[in-house]
Amino acid sequence: MSTAFPRSLVRPRGHARFVAFAIVGGSGYAVNLGVFSAATAAGAPDAVAAVAGFCVAVCTNFALNRAWTFHDARGPVARQYARFATVALAGLAIDLATLEGLLALGVSGVAAQAVGIAAAVPVTFAGNRLWSFAAPLTRPEEPLPPPLPGLRTLVCVPTYNESATLPLLVGELLAVLGPDDRILVVDDASPDGTGELAERLGPNVEVLHRSRKEGLGRAYVAAFRYALARGARYVVQMDADLSHRPSDVPRLVAACADADLAIGSRYVPGGSPGGLTSARRVLSAAGAAYARVLLGLRVRDLTGGFKCFRRSALAALPLDDVYSRGYAFQIETTYRLARSGFSVAEVPIDFQERTAGTSKLSAGVVLEALLRVPLLPLDVLAAQARATGRLQAWRGIAFAWLGSRLVVLGAAALAAGGSPLRTLHAWDGRWYGMVARHGYFLLPGYQSDAAFFPLYPVVLRALGHLGLSTTVAGPLVSNTSFLLALLVFYELARTWFAAADARRAAIYAAYFPLGFVFSMVYPEALSLLVLAGAGLAAARCRWKTAAVLAALGALGRPEAAFLVLPFAAAVVRRWRGLGTRARTEALAAIGAAPAALAGLMAYDAHTLHDPVAFSAAQLAWGRRFSATGVLRAWHELSVAAQRHNPWLYRDAAFLVVYLVFLVLARRLRVPWPWIAAATLTLVLPLESGSVTSVARFGLLCPPVYCGLAYLGRRPGVDVALRVSCASLLAAGAATVPLHWP
Amino acid sequence: MRAVVLPAVAATAACAGIAAAAYAVVATLPAPQPGLAPAVRLLKALPHAHESAAIVHLDGRTLDARCYRRGAVRVIDAGGRRVVLHRTRIERGPTTFPLPQAVALTDLVGIRALVGEEIAGRARAGLPLVAGRARVSGRRAILLRLAGSPAVVVAVDAATGRPLALRFASRRASGWSTLGAPAPAPSRELVSAHPGLGAGHAC
């Protein structure tokens, strides 16, 4: 034992992997602490040192886990690292949430942290084992059979110790199948001789012998590759334990005449999970509901394993990207096909509990399904991005984001004498922090936090519950939101014009001179994300998502109310093609932003006794909406020099430039309603009697960046624009301590 | 017609749901503290409160204190001695009170801008405002805390929101005051020392 244990740790497998993972985790803790100590000793603020320590520890942990713990993993390093970092962040969130919860219950700090780590480590281990470093299920080295002309249906039956039921199943199947149909038994080297038994069951039964037990997913993938190579028109998958009735196979195949995938469903009218025990019934229904809600699918029986694929659908399934091994495999295949636009039909079946053999359901299989389901959309998104060439554009935009944020952080650090956080928290940042900590107040005649919209503080507060202080959470939310906002804006712009122009528009947005605000404790980045997201959802006719995002947008910044214009235009254009349900959702999307504003007004009326408290609070900053507001704004501008406020000229200049960009954006065929919404966003604040901050308001106008993209169509101009934008961005960030944005 | 009305009705119901959800999202923020309502009433009443004179009881002495203003300069005249302020900063030269008493007097005379700023400052910091309830000159009053150290409390008329009295307590000075009617015109001596002071300019 004493010699076997270290040897198994050299190239760990099974439980030894977990030990290796824990050792690497311990080393990461030491690295984190070391970097934190070194950074604080060098004068870095605690928050910056903590982030640096975390990032370095993630890198060293990744390298060690890849080289040692998961030494047999294959796949691109970048993809593995992205997944590893995601899992690490999820682990951190679990740790912090547990810590916070236990501290609230009065548990001591050390004990709470110990429990937090104990809760996070198994999840991160499972996440990395099943996702970051998961091996693909395909085995290119496995030989494929020759095509069988005329083969109509191939029924695939994976087996492991199913000798008691297999002959009965095959007999019943042969009775309902036609002469052009075959059965494929995929046996994982069953100790009870199931594989050998299958060889003797008749000429229409083919057997795929596999060297060892590798799970349901790998067996099915091998069967699918086999079926495609054989040339089957329909491929049926079913269990060998007689829980799926062979007499239902013809109905499933018949359903594939109208659908690409037919699922034998226990949860549609006419179907029944009758054979399941009560406990299995609850587990199965909960699993199906969990997957349905998280994946947004309307399929009732996502965990069912009785399916029929049309050949075209099966051929489109990216088997190299399928990683689920257990029952999550069923969910993954259905989800991938549904997301790729293939139609799914459900055929009612009576499910029977197995009468012989043992169930393969285990805690590991359940855990895999729990973890894999939330990650599936990310996998599918990445796969689609690779297939459509978006990944390259996303990468370019992400690099622009990184470069521009480094420019901002560098300039902010220089301006604040070494601490960028002080610059990032300047001005309105303290107000948003105030709202997050203490909620709203409205004091007549005095500057009150009711002027600041609630979405951003609500997010900061939620992160505060996870243990993140506003000092860290603010810049974190802003910068992360900005990266996502750029990607979503790129997708939105792609619905308007060519991909190359859209990519340029997103990169200009990253380097936009006033874009340092996107890194500050301001809601602009989050608002741009939800605004662009709402626009994209509407463009793709996902009205429910559009409604939710528009409502969130209105809670982030009042300008979101102008989404009514592009939404209304989109609905009018598509009205005739929409059904009653879609019309309802589309109309709700139009009204979502005003409705959310009404909700905010109701809250203000109830708690602050003024339904327009957000507007009343602006009085203390000299803003008051009136018919003569524009004249007052002009007067303010004309006496700016006398009042020693030359910054107003900056805002006025930006306003003019923005309006020019809107004209140029139209040349790129940005839709009129978006340009109208942007114009209102820029011009309406003048009615409050001030030009102040108009430059910042323009950041929430996506067409502005499109105007820049039009200008940068010529390579020379493009380079000049990037350089000048980056220079102005640095200069702008450096001036934050002098004046608000 | 049905193809329009039915979706419109359902969408209106959905929007009502969205409004309710938005309310619920905002309601995850902390509710305003209970002391905010009387503080708001005080701030609304302050511009109309002409108390620039007070009877101050400071360290065992009773002083008839009056406050006059000219621009950013305020002069508090109490029993012939004075405190001179530039905005909220005490000017040490012309001030003839010892500093602890000058600080106390500045608070106790009830300068409106000072009371307002202190209330707003505490609200912004999320500090509790209400210190209790009391009866002042037979009127029901709510006590609002203006500062924690030194402890400064203003008694606000529960019915009208007008400031009635102030209490000040530090380690080196303590006292209380009842806020009175507008101060009479400044004395000739005071005007000659600080030209431009006028009773019409409320503190």
In short:
With 741 residues, chain A is mainly α. Chain A has 30 helices and seven strands.
What brief labels describe this structure?
heterodimer; A: 741 residues; mainly alpha; seven-stranded mixed beta sheet; 61% helix; globular; B: 203 residues; alpha+beta; outer membrane lipoprotein receptor (LolB), chain A; ten-stranded antiparallel beta sheet; 5 helices; 33% strand; elongated
Interface with most residues: A-B, 48 and 41 residues
Proportion of helical residues of chain B: 25-40%
Structural class, from secondary structure content of chain B? alpha+beta
Structural class of chain A: mainly alpha
Strand content of chain A: under 5%
Quaternary state of this entry equals heterodimer
Q: What does the largest sheet of chain B look like?
A: 10 strands, antiparallel
Succession of helices and strands of chain B: HHEEEEEHHEEEEEH
Largest sheet features of chain A: 7 strands, mixed
Predict the CATH topology of chain B.
outer membrane lipoprotein receptor (LolB), chain A
Sheet with most strands: strand arrangement of chain A: 3-2-1-4-6-5-7
Largest beta sheet of chain B: what is the strand line-up? 5-4-3-2-1-10-9-8-7-6
How many β-strands of chain B, per DSSP?
10
The CATH class of chain B turns out to be Mainly Beta
**Average pLDDT value of chain B?**
90
Counted up, domains of chain A total 3
List the domain count of chain B as a whole number.
1
**Radius of gyration of chain B from the CA trace?**
23 Å
Description:
- The complex is a heterodimer of chains A (741) and B (203).
- Chain A is mainly α and 741 residues long.
- Chain A is 61% helix and 5% strand.
- The radius of gyration of chain A is 30 Å and the shape is globular.
- Chain B is α+β, with helices and mostly antiparallel strands and 203 residues long.
- Chain B has a single domain, classed as outer membrane lipoprotein receptor (LolB), chain A (Clam).
- Chain B is 32% helix and 33% strand.
- Chain B is built from 5 helices and 10 strands, in the order ααβββββααβββββα.
- Chain B has helices at 2-26, 36-45, 99-108, 112-125, 188-193, and strands at residues 53-58, 61-70, 73-78, 81-86, 89-90, 130-136, 139-147, 151-157, 163-169, 174-179.
- The radius of gyration of chain B is 23 Å and the shape is elongated.
- Chain A binds chain B through residues 434-449, 454-455, 457-458, 461-462, 547, 551, 554-555, 580, 583-588, 590-592, 594-600, 602-603, 607-609, and chain B through 3-4, 6-8, 10-12, 14-16, 18-23, 25-33, 36-37, 39-40, 43-44, 47, 116-117, 119-120, 123-126.
